[in-house]
Specification:
With about 260 residues, the protein is an alpha+beta fold. It has helices spanning about 20-35, 65-70, 85-90, 95, 155-165, 210-220; strands spanning about 10-20, 35-40, 45-55, 55-65, 75-80, 100, 105, 110-120, 125-130, 145-150, 170, 180-185, 185-195, 200-205, 225-230, 235-240, 245-255. Helix content is about 20%, strand content about 45%. β16 and β17 (about 245-255) form a beta hairpin.
């Protein structure tokens, strides 16, 4: 269902872009997906921008902290998971085999409380306890988040961590190492082997009405094609990079396909 009024514990609820030039990113994604933007400011300085579709928040944009750039961290789309109690969730990370990347942070705008954690394979994700902001208001339609996937060096180790922390279970898909993430009765994402030499990381899929048209538009806007458009059971998809190098997937969803 495209309209969301909230999210259950352990379900993906938000993505944001950590980039170098937020204004340039606004130009790129506004042209690609039709987003408009609303800025949160502190003493006149923009600290976070909401990407809007039909005036509803669907993603976030922020400037990459300088220390991450100094560490060589690439610009990227970050994945968030809703939790009921972020302090309790963070307290269970070490026992589950993961690594806390810092303490719980209260977002200044009162939007929520977050904790950044790493699974045992190095995939970094953000746990989000909502306050004023529960996450994306629209999903599964053009220009909105529709899927989240962890590419990892060890599928079983990553799933074991999230099973202990969030109650996820892994479901075999396609007969290979790819596993679906089951939360309750629903498949909410996937975990798959990362290509050799690629660090474990989360990636986001955005729904589009026409995959090939979106690929062409991305290139015209200065972006790149990482994986050319291909037909798969869930729909026609491609991996792209924006004009600053942040990678993401697009997919023209096959509405008849179901993994639940």
């Amino acid at each position: 269902m495209p309209r969301r009024d909230g999210y259950e514990h352990g379900v993906f609820n938000w993505v944001d872009l950590c980039t170098g030039d937020v204004d340039a990113a606004k130009v790129f994604y506004s042209a690609l997906f039709g987003w408009s933007f609303s800025d949160d400011t502190n003493n006149g300085e923009v600290v976070y921008s909401l990407g809007l579709k039909d005036e509803q928040p669907v993603v976030g944009l922020m400037r990459q902290p300088p220390e991450l750039g100094e560490m060589g961290v690439p610009y990227c789309w970050e994945t968030y998971i809703k939790v009921d109690d972020v302090d309790a969730a963070l307290g269970g990370v070490v026992e589950a085999g993961g690594t806390p990347m810092g303490p719980v942070i209260d977002v200044e705008s009162g939007a929520g409380r977050i904790a950044v954690v790493s699974d045992p394979t190095g995939g970094v994700v953000i746990l989000w306890e909502p306050m004023n902001h529960y996450g994306a208001h629209l999903v599964d339609e053009h220009g909105t988040m529709c899927w989240n996937e962890l590419l990892t060096s060890d599928v079983d180790a990553a799933l074991g961590f999230f099973s202990a922390l969030l109650g996820w279970t892994g479901v075999s898909m396609g007969g290979g190492e790819l596993k679906g993430i089951r939360r309750g009765e629903e498949i909410i994402g996937t975990v798959s082997p990362a290509p050799e030499g690629v660090p474990s990381h989360w990636t986001v899929y955005f729904a589009v009405d026409d995959c090939d048209a979106a690929v062409e538009k991305c290139v015209r806007l200065g972006g790149q094609v990482v994986v050319p458009a291909m037909d798969q059971a869930p729909g026609r998809m491609a991996q792209l990079a924006d004009d600053q190098g942040a990678m993401f997937w697009i997919i023209d969803l096959n509405r008849e396909f179901s993994v639940s």
